[in-house]
Design brief:
The chain starts with a strand and ends with a helix. Helices cover 38% and strands 22% of the residues. A ten-stranded mixed β-sheet has the order 2-1-3-12-11-4-5-10-8-9, with helices on both faces. By secondary structure, the protein is of the alpha/beta class. Bound molecules: 3-isopropylmalic acid and manganese (II) ion. 3-isopropylmalic acid (IPM) binds next to helix 4. The site of manganese (II) ion has 2 residues, from helix 8.
Length: 377
């Protein structure tokens, strides 16, 4: 069989990272058995694993590996107990994750939030509010805004006070490129779900922030190029409320960096568990492909790390997104997605999505959850 080989940098990181990464790699190996593709997967330390191995949350060798790879499959980094032991700028979140986002200009963060019908019980909303189902794509700007704007400092004032400054900056081109991603994603989603009318809800705080005014203006302009996609603007505070009241009204949510951080966690709760939400962080297109970093939306969950209790689905779905966006392997992506559906339909549940009242469901560990997905590929 003539097969293409893709090089993957697998950075498992800390906490549950290694055990969910192990399951995702098993799934990629199962994909190799079914499709004409090979993955050259090279693992490297990041986060506390990087500090312990090489004195640095993003060791030079790890960064070099990422540069030579076709995509980065990322686990999670940071350990709340150890983080305070090093200066803020050396902690895993800033020194590894934010640095990778910035280094590779991964400006587009896609977080698909889907509530599987079998997991309706795990959604915090009562059934009536779940509507016909929850299927939202959060498109978050990832390399600008408050996270990266300067000045950024804590100054000591003469009067015994301190003063903290963060700077919210967006330029036209930064808004345009993320808005394009959102409109294109809405078109793509409408193609794959018959009957879905593509819609972008653009989030801002235009009633108070100059950034919101510019955001709204630029997104409106970009929207004119996509007459088939409905565009609505919504204030961020109202959006937070609408997500709880009527999430089924949303298709694609377009957010600046900070609002996207907050609203994507809120939206993820609707999927029943953070353990169900993957993400893709993409840079500029290279032809019809993207270089990207793929990671679960959840964190390191140190309380359950190493206990075979973590839900590997977000990591496995992240690998599936990698196949879709970086390798253009749409069929392999769909095969993984369907296999997860089958594993769930068969009653396999990690602890976070287990409902003791459901007699057709059984609680399984991280490995067994991964095995049940592989068996269905
Ligand atoms: C996320 C995380 C990160 C962020 C942290 C870990 C820096 O919360 O990916 O949403 O705030 O972007
Ligand atoms: Mn977050």
């Amino acid at each position: 069989m003539n097969s293409k080989t893709f090089k993957v940098a697998a950075l498992a990181g800390d906490g549950i990272g290694p055990e969910v990464m192990r399951e995702a790699i098993k799934v990629l190996r199962a994909v190799e058995d079914k499709f004409p593709v090979r993955f050259n997967i090279i693992e490297a330390p990041v986060g506390w694993a990087g500090i312990d191995a090489a004195g640095n949350a993003l060791p030079d060798a790890t960064l070099a590996l990422c540069k030579q790879s076709d995509a980065i499959l990322f686990g999670s980094v940071g350990l709340p107990e150890r983080d305070p032991t090093v200066p803020r700028d050396q902690r895993p979140e800033r020194a590894a994750l934010l640095r990778l986002r910035r280094e590779f200009q991964l400006f587009a963060n896609l977080r698909p939030v889907v509530l599987w019908k079998e997991l309706a019980h795990a959604c915090p909303l009562v059934k009536e509010r779940q509507g016909a189902g929850i299927d939202i794509l959060v498109v978050r700007e990832l390399t600008a805004g408050l996270y990266f704007g300067t000045p950024k400092s804590i100054e000591t004032l003469g009067n015994g006070q301190k003063r903290a400054t963060d700077t919210l900056i967006y330029s036209t081109s930064e808004i345009e490129r993320i808005a394009n991603v959102a409109f294109l994603a809405a078109q793509e989603r409408a193609k794959s779900a018959a009957g879905r009318k593509p819609k972008v809800t653009s989030i801002d705080k235009a009633n108070v922030l100059e950034n919101g005014v510019l955001w709204r203006e630029v997104v409106s302009d970009v929207g004119k190029r996509y007459p088939d996609v409905a565009l609505e603007h919504m204030l961020v505070d109202n959006t937070a409320m609408q997500l709880m009241l009527k999430p089924s009204q949303f298709d694609v949510l377009l957010c600046e960096n900070m609002f996207g951080d907050i609203l994507s966690d809120e939206a993820a709760a609707l999927a029943g568990s953070l353990g169900m939400v993957p993400s893709a962080s993409l840079g500029a297109a290279r032809g019809d492909r993207f270089f990207g970093l793929y990671e679960p939306a959840g964190g390191t969950a140190p309380d359950i790390a190493g206990k075979d209790r973590a839900n590997p689905i977000a990591q496995i779905l992240s690998a599936a997104l990698m196949l879709q966006y970086s390798f253009k392997l749409g069929e392999a992506h769909d095969a993984i997605f369907k296999a997860i559906g089958k594993a769930i339909a068969d009653g396999n549940r990690s602890g976070d999505i287990f409902n003791p009242a459901d007699s057709s469901a059984k609680k399984v560990g991280t490995r067994a959850m991964g095995d049940s997905i592989i068996a269905a590929i």
